[in-house]
Structures
1.
Amino acid sequence: MERVRKYLEINTLRFSLESNWEKFRFVCIDSESTGLDPKRDKLISLAGVGLREGEICLFDEFSVVMPIAYNTSSVTVHGITREAAAEGIEEPEALCQFLDWLADGVIVGHHIQHDITLLNLACEKHFNRTLKNVVIDTMEASLTIREAGGFKGDDWPERHSLDALCERFGITPHDRHTALGDAFLTAQILLRVLKEAGKLGMWNLEDLHAWYADQPFPFTNG
């Protein structure tokens, strides 16, 4: 498929994890699915927002909904019913559009393992390929910065959920549990993480616990 080939070509020269992250394009993503088992459940919605040079780029957004055969219990979380998704884009085309937008951006997400597993399984199913991008988990990155001496104070949350970090950083959780809303919240958290990392002189991707999407997720508490 031509669009998949172009995506793979763009990602042929992959970032070194020792690279300085200041000039990279980060793509904060989130997905909603029919359940929590990525081997059984399917993507329903997928969204993201770009971030460059310390700014969220509102013109650099992506959002797509995919049709589903029936409603599952997850509808109580994300609110996307079979009827609401009926006019959505079929998964292969939705994935192609996502890869067009993604390009070689550094993928960022909160508790990102589930999203990456879903995306890799879907890409393997339709294209016999997996994602090649560098990936950062904002939970892991925030804990790494905290352990390195950042985010000083006693108000660090015991839990490391998206909601807990939003509260810690004073971020109002608009559109929570929608893919685009959660991607935008993740982008705001990433801004805080990058700012604190810069203060500590942590300029490499590996300083943020970065990894590659086609490699096993390296963290047991992701």
2.
Amino acid sequence: MLLAIRERVMGIVGWVLLGFLGVAFAFFGLNSYMGDTSRPYAASVNGADISLTDLKKSYQLTMARLKDRMGKAFDPALFPEESLRKISLERLIHEELMLQEAKTDGFTATKEVIAARIKVIPAFKDDDTFSSKKYTRMLQLQGLSSSEFERGLSRELVTQQLRDGFAMTAYPTPAMVKEIYRLQAQQRRFRYLVLQLSGISDKASVSDAEIQQYYDENSKDFISPERVKLQYVELIAGSLPVDETVEEEDLRTLYEEQSELYITPEERRARHILVSLPPDSDSDAQETALAKITSLLKQLDEGASFEELAKRESDDPGSASKGGDLGYFGKGVMDPEFEASAFSLEKGQHSGIVKTAFGYHIIEVTDIKPEVVKSFEDVRDELVNDYFSQKRSDLFYEYAETLATLAFEEPDSLDGAANELGLEISTSDWLTREGGPGIGENQKVVDAAFTEDILESRNNSEPIEISDDHLVVIRVLDHEPAETKPLDAVREEAERKAHDAKARMLVRNEGEQLLEDLKSGVSMEEAAGKRGLEVSDSGYINRASGTLDRLLVQEVYRMPPVTDDHPSMKGVALASGDYAILLLDEIRDGDVTKLNATDRNKIAAEIAKIQGNTELTAVVDALRANATIIIPEKRN
């Protein structure tokens, strides 16, 4: 099925999509469905349910990534919750379709592969060595159990095999490589002049009436934000007292339960020579490929350098430049035929001809890392820590239930819950809807603080999950509504902003007038001379140039080519308030024929990756069109 769909998306539609160089999730008419716990699932994809819990975690992950990328610039108002939840659900549907297709095509991830993958994740290491203690702690901070994480990792490894299948078999035509490189490596040369905001600022005096007008028209800029001060109690698993005695038998039982984490499976480092052969190749192509790989094998048997032969003859763009080196890999990663051969060879030995879905290979094993099993004695200290961590987790859930009950039964005070569980009542700083220091750094706490039940009714919140082992219950201690500051209180700020706005307007007006002069036939040098400005020459720049204002580079690449009848020029208002006039002089296209073979192969490999991703997206879209997807309506 996958091959049939892929063959249908390899036409002009696929190439048009490739031009966008990216993948975007679209909204597919998703209805209002969030927050309704009466529904059994968030969506059903061909009978496989996407749970409400998975959707919640996907939404939280989306929010966390946005905050991490934007930092202090993050504004929740720019990302409506409903829209982000729709995007999160769409991502989960997309992933489920990929997973189903990957499993249909026979891709799997064994327990050994999952364990091996976990052990190489840097976040789970101490001094380059896997730490089960750190593994458990990091998952708890993410609100995940080990089974949830490993299930998610399994899904990721399976779908990654599907992605790799497209990435490794995509093949851009020479014409495509030529055209994309022509645009990618294109250089442009232009002249420009800049009208400085500072040169006009003195002319931009503002009257009291203009200050008042600016204040009236931009009153939202002079609002003191709504804010709250909170009381709260925290329940943290790591701080709970437990009986610190442990039986040896219990530790050995735990060791057996987690035994996979203490095994480092055998890994092999190999290199290969590939003579590619598309699945739909005719008999002539197959005979040609077989003859070539047979000749290469003969050369190796006669003493030729594997590395040099791979660099010169291999069709794998990802490894050819490295002498065919594929790095270390374990079982369950490579194509089954490739893996069977690689794991049957001795170190330094090369295989015969191996046929896979990608073509014909010759494989050489360059190193072997044998399986390593840590003994019970080696990990005993980790087991002790894991054991007590589990005991604290069990106690934590008991306390959490009690905390939820007491906070609900005594909604106007935290005293009862604090006294019963031995918790301390803390007080926050002032927090706005954008958060604040301390507990205000957690967006879930901030969101809860401004809900009607907590803000207006002054009730205790439900326990808020900070992480898997950290809960907090809050209540509003004090509240100050948002209000517009009077002009007298912000006059200095209003005058400064009004002055800046007027200066920017004057600079823009003068820049637009200068642009009209150029369009009427006045040369840039003449127009600049009359105004005491300097004309600069950019020299040849590329799209990634960092020597000029980034906006100038972006805008000059949007300008149409110069013709005999129409010079290409544009005015650009810069973020600084300056105004630039651009005059495009020359375009120099990238020429792929001037690259050496190695660089051309790198370009082709990059395009192949993009092409593969585009094809995969088209395949998933086709799968979706034929899938049975149910998104329950929100019930009233």
3.
Amino acid sequence: MLLGVDVGGTFTDAVLLGDGVLVTAKAPSTPEDQSVGVMAAVEAALARAGRQPRDVRAFAHGTTVATNALLEGSAARTALVATDGFTDVVELGRQARAQLYRLCAARPAPLVPPELRFGAPERMTPAGPLRPLTREAAETLAHEVAAAAPEAVAVVLLHAYRHPRHELAVRDALAAALPDAHVSLSHEVVGTFREYERAATTEVDAALSPLLGRYLRRLAERTRAAGLPEPAIMQSSGGLADVASAAAHAARTVLSGPAGGAAGAAFAARAAGVERALCLDMGGTSADVCLVHDGAVAETGASEIAGRPIALPALDVHTVGAGGGSIAWRDAGGALRVGPRSAGAVPGPACYGRGGEQPTVTDANLLLGRLRDDVPLAGGIALDRAAAEHAVGALARELKLDLLACAEGIVRVAVAEMTRALRVVSVERGIDPRDHALVAFGGAGPLHAVAIAEELGIERVLAPRSSGVLAALGLVVAPRRRDVQRSVLRSGETLSAEAVVADVAELTAAARDALGASDASVAATYELRYRGQAFELAVPFAPGAPPATPARLREAFEAEHEQRYGYRDPGEQVELVTVRVSATTPAPAPPGGALAGGGPSPGATLPGPAVVPLPESTLVIPRGWTGAVRADGAIDVRRDDRSAAR
């Protein structure tokens, strides 16, 4: 059987896939040591399946260790080595502000304080060394760094993406002076230009890798002792990596959790024959949204986590603080707000009976009859209606509202927040959500999916039978993957078919070598821009596509530019800035089909209004909508014809 385990803010989900069935289990997450919750979920899944650890053929894991450390600022003691005169590049950042007129809004402080920043006596240009770094200077620098006793070191030298020899010299000197420290080199971590983004990403990688490494070693020890295979770790790109690779570069896993959900959503969309889908993963702490076209999740060459740029390939997932455990509150102006603060796994929503006293979205859904207090939630949690009434009632009195009106308001505000997030990945990018289906999953996603669809004008909602653990299922079906990228900066005469082929061939060899699979499937992504533009648009070429000649690159880029910005400029020169190659090998095929137990029978019709219990979640179908249960157990909910006409 194949095993997948996803760690969420409230629950840790496990799925076992094989023998013609899908077995699922949940256990409370254990933030102090996620491996405890992981093993509890695995044990529960094995017990439900009646199987032993030796029956598990492959184990895939999505973790939030790096994400949580970044959000909480609990990084390892890290030093930064940069070209002399450029040690403050991360603190200086860029002039751009997310909110133009909030002059008092500050960016996150660098993970490396000023006293741990060291200048390297060297200078590299795009053409080669201007000021060579001598061996003696590198050794002296390494001893200065060692005297500060860092646990990790980020090395970011000018133009190392093209000429890495100075970074390699610093690495060798640090290995002698600080043999136990983790060292992240910018040309290995990022491999592209833009000094600020490259430095910030390398700093994150160095600061988080020791923490993630310790966690993964603990988990590997526990799985080895239990007789399980070593886990493969989900990366932000949606592909799996071995433990050693993930521990060496934690920055590649900062979206590990959401990436599993996105991979599961793409799998569900493909199974239902849905070519264009918006996906909503609503868990206990947050909601993640993404776009799926032709069975693949949209990707991006860079992302931002907690205000810090991560210049690495990632699935294009947008996150908002709207989950089942999101806390409802009254702001200074008297308005009802929901999130981003969450009750989390401990104490959880008030209705969990674990000491929580603040009202949450889950409490509101219980009071509105969308959840039942006589049936435990997945994970064995019995809901306490009286506790929910007490928590929501206190907020209702503050707002001078009736109890149920307050509960309805909490849900409506949460729906508005998730609708806004879906507009970010669709409307704001020139994509009409009305010709998409909404794939809803996570423990709370199907509860609110149809209400969100009505706000966006979407006519179809798909709720997989395993929607409550779809992120864990996404881990099982995810491929192994490695990405290699490099800035090439080609235009005019240097942008030739021969040059592009040579760039791709070199990166392909590096990606396959990193993956350890010489026959891995390869896809290339080209980041292009019009001459004079500051940033690029990514144009993917799938495996087996015609060669990326300059003419094909231009046409694909201009089509994307027109969709995104509404125009193209045929007379302007196009520049190829970065080439990225992804090497993948498919996930092992499960033995036999798979169908989760529980839920309505295939072929059933479910007219609204209805509350439909699923194995790990609940689907709400309002009046004017009807659900049809597919052969694989997924529920296809569509607007009634008469309702659509009105």
4.
Amino acid sequence: MHKRGALPSFLSAEENRLDNALLLGGEWLGATHPILKCLRLGVAIHHGALPGAFRKEVERLLQEGVLKVIISSPTLAQGLNLSATTVVIHSLFRNRELIKASEFKNVVGRAGRAYVDVEGLVIYPAFNNHQQRLRDWEKLISDSTSREMTSGLVRLLITLLQRMQRIIGDSLPQLVDYVMNNAGAWEFSVLASEKHEDEARERRDWDRYIATLDTAILSLIGENDVLDEEIPGVLDDILRSSLWERSLAHRSDEIKAVLTTALISRSQNIWARSTAMGRRGYFLAGIGLKTGHALDAVAVETNQFLVSANAAISSEEYEDAIENISAIAERVFVIPPFVPVAIPTNWQAILRCWLLGQPIFGVAENQENEVLQFVEGALVYRLAWAMEAIRVRGVANGDTVGIFGFPLENHELGMAVSSVETGTLNRSASILIQAGFTSRRAAIKAVTESAATFSNALELRQWMSSDAVADLSAHASWPTIETKRMWDSFVQGFSPQESKVWKKHNYWAHVKWRTGFELPSEAPLRFYEIDGQPFILSPEGLYIGKLCAPLNPSRQGLVRASVMDEPGKVSITYFGPDDLWVL
């Protein structure tokens, strides 16, 4: 539309306000990507598969009002405290099902900016099927007025039980018996009338819901040494006066019995199929029973791969590191919830490119969106989570590695995860990116050119305050011409100045008392500035003298002052940064 002259630019701010977003987007997408062309017109494109660094920069521009138009998935409306004058809803359906009223309420609630708009406008264009669309709209409007707070645990169990009910029938007593006496109730069952694509989606959802339920149960009692027969009583004690209990109070006795039985049944199912040590590992790793069992099965291999990957990164044997991280990915990418939404055929090449710090769009092969989704969703999120789950589970179980049986926890285990998260095997560059300098390319260049070898936050601070980095930072093109401004901003905001640290300061100062108003020793005083002049007031606010010192009217801390024994002096205790005086 813009090319045809039908749409003007919406950007009213200075174009240089977009520099960081364009730079980060270019690193990932290429400088000519349509998303960046839209950005230059003042239109933000936002969805979960976009690179995290770029997405956060766009969110900052939205918050600051630089960008005025947003085209987004519901992620933006749900995840950010963002509002707009007008919200246009494209569709009320996802996967051919009407969206939930809670999500609808969240989205429409973004219309109307606080302190700016008297009211917000929500638009739902309907070009066909008008009556049905209107009914769907009115249904969501009606449902969205409900303010009932419901336990997430209750909603989760209801979702699982509804599918079980579709299998065995509508009888609630029969459902209670099915859940209580059938261990297979917690396995996914196929419905005869279900289409293949619906079955695949339902199976994914079932696995996700079961994993979430298991995580919830383990978070309640996972670390406690509880016997199987003690589970009902322990759950009852833990959930007493909780939202779970209040939610059950609004339901019939039959529904209450089904939900309570289901929670106890799943808990006992977990206990029957795990050990106390295993459950502790699952709980700490944030995974459910099925995922835990799958990681148990490959633990010997994955523990060794994790140790070897970290050792290779430490010794800068990057090809070995890539090989071991790829081996971990091959094993965990088939284990829910670490299974990627989609896996490109050249995913190993993408992983290698990512870990070597190379531009991702170079291996996109006309599948930029799929590659971006794989990097952000599968590598940065799922693979990093899986590697951390391997570590946590292994340490909790006391796993050993190698023929000599050294404990897993005795090995360096953190570098490989941060390399996957940041997209570089260079340890120093990874730390720099994690510290907030979000240009991956410039971070690698900065540590390479300065021969940096820092491996922790303290060494990073020392490196940044070194003369070598100060000399390099003085150049207009360092780390790169495009990232110079970003670097200067990072350096300025990275480490709080000493003057910003609050602490107790003790001072004394000369004072010129107003004739006839000198107060006794230790009498409390107040300071006040008039036209830049520091005056002394009594506790009642009466002007009694002038302070003979350069008091800072913009100080941030708290002053406690009193009269000293020595004539013409006051004692000052200041709680705050080193900013009481004008220097």
